[in-house]
Write a structure and sequence with these properties.
This protein has 101 residues and is mainly alpha-helical. It is built from 4 helices and no strands.
């Protein structure tokens, strides 16, 4: 049994709806963590002291957000392409992001 507080009425805040929302949140969270851990190699980082880990996490998050804002969904494939054409990531940074409706 789980209890929670909400301002929603019982008809709008049904247990089924909350379960779906919670699962949806963790699906997004797990997908994001997998990209950061596997694709960016966050778990293998050798930076462990001072502000280094925080700075690197911010840089990874910034890169991921930038890729998503430009419509990139296949992150690993795009990073491999960037390794062959290093001018492409710079172009992403300098280009205006695509407006989403």
């Amino acid at each position: 049994v789980r209890y929670g507080l909400t301002s929603l009425t019982p008809t709008r805040g049904t247990p089924e709806r909350w379960l779906a929302r919670k699962r949806g949140h963790w699906q997004i969270e797990n997908r994001l963590q997998r990209i950061k851990a596997v694709t960016f190699g966050e778990d293998q980082s050798l930076i462990h002291t001072g502000p280094g880990p925080t700075v690197m996490a911010l840089l990874r998050d910034t890169a991921l957000n930038l890729l998503h804002r430009h419509g990139v969904r296949r992150i690993a494939a795009r990073l491999r392409a960037f390794s062959q054409y290093p001018e492409q990531p710079l172009a992403l940074v300098l280009a205006a992001p695509i407006a989403h409706a």
